[in-house]
């Protein structure tokens, strides 16, 4: 096996806390809304929206635009159908303002000392860049589904990341808090690291973070991964 | 006019010293070669190689591959036809190992404090990422012709950069040491900043760095640009 030289990271839930960030912002701006239910309802529409692109039902569409359509769908259910265009546009960009988990910035800085570290997210390039600049995520390179015009778990995304660096898939490790993302990466020949994020859906909805022995690494958080990788 | 929020940078000659870097490496490894002539001969084939892609004669091809073809063309002229595959591959990746101009890292760090800073180069993503990691170039995002599958001065590259961030072209400023790059960006509605790099082709071939009043800014180097932009 060649040594791993590139680490590519899932973002939503793995590096940033989408649920907690959206809950805090919605609670602050729209205190009448059940922010936990709102965040989960928005996110529930994520895979079905991307599936319309994956299936070819619609052409390549950036996640910002998919998020906006999902938002339009759920606003009436939460009594927010009165929001004007500027309010909707601002709320939709909450995905650019997600906060890193407490270990993320320090963990990435350590991992960056030995590896090339890149996002590899279904988020669009602008979203990921704005998020990184705001949160201090020290990427060597912002890679996105937008570069490959395909959404994970499409193999073109994982193989595209290896292709960008002209290395074999085995020299790339996918880091994610989602076993399905890692399984698809493994099918493409990438190494995989699972990150436990039991609070991804909030403290009221603890997630199963059981290890899968198929993964190359299993880590509590990004600092633990840095420890295991000797960074 | 909306305020400028995104700065996109040409790389070869603007942020890094391709001529000096190649000369130093060739002198060290192949002392019998006229390194100055070698570097210029390689670079002279740059625009014709990309023109084959722009014209549609060949499909999308990364710059690493174009550089390799250009290298194969010039090796015999410099008595280097005996290089084996590993030596050719290593020499071709000298474009990943170009050194920043002395002002680049400090200038970019200052500009980053007020603007989103991105590469916008015909170099491929892997080349630009390796170069940035080695040289300490603190990009918020590595943008490349590879993202848009088009080579500058194709308008898709300049307009693509604005599109990535969902801003109008006037909110983006192209920073380059080449008037033709800036003219193409201006035609797309971007602001432009010219950077003087009189030594781009080496001390023996001083370049004309006269101002063009059509540019939004004219700066001696990136520190001067940061001064003018109040960073």
UniProtKB/TrEMBL annotation, chains A, B:
Enzyme Commission code: 3.8.1.2
Family matches, as Pfam families: Hydrolase (PF00702)
Gene Ontology MF, one: (S)-2-haloacid dehalogenase activity
Keywords linked to the UniProt accession: Hydrolase
Enzyme class, first EC level, given as a word: hydrolase
Catalytic activity: an (S)-2-haloacid + H2O = a (2R)-2-hydroxycarboxylate + a halide anion + H(+)
The family this protein is said to belong to: Belongs to the HAD-like hydrolase superfamily. S-2-haloalkanoic acid dehalogenase family.
Chain's role: Catalyzes the hydrolytic dehalogenation of small (S)-2-haloalkanoic acids to yield the corresponding (R)-2-hydroxyalkanoic acids.
Protein name per Swiss-Prot or TrEMBL: (S)-2-haloacid dehalogenase
Organism: Hydrogenophaga intermedia
């Amino acid at each position: 096996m060649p040594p791993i030289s590139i680490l590519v990271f899932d973002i939503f839930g793995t590096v940033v806390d989408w649920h907690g960030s959206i809950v805090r912002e919605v609670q602050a701006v729209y205190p009448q809304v059940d922010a936990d239910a709102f965040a989960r309802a928005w996110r529930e529409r994520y895979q079905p929206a991307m599936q319309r692109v994956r299936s070819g039902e619609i052409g390549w569409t950036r996640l910002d635009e998919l998020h906006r359509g999902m938002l339009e769908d759920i606003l009436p259910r939460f009594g927010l159908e009165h929001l004007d265009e500027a309010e909707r546009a601002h709320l939709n960009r909450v995905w650019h303002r997600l906060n890193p988990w407490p270990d993320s910035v320090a963990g990435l800085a350590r991992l960056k000392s030995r590896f090339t570290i890149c996002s590899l997210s279904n988020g669009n390039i602008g979203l990921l860049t704005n998020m990184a600049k705001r949160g201090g995520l020290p990427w060597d390179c912002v890679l996105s589904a937008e570069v490959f015009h395909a959404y994970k778990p499409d193999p073109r995304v994982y193989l595209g990341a290896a292709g960008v660096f002209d290395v074999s898939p085995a020299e790339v490790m996918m880091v994610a808090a989602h076993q399905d993302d890692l399984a698809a990466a493994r099918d493409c020949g990438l190494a995989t690291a699972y990150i436990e994020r039991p609070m991804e859906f909030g403290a009221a909805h603890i997630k199963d973070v059981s290890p899968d022995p198929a993964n190359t690494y299993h880590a509590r958080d990004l600092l633990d991964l840095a420890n295991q990788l000797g960074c």
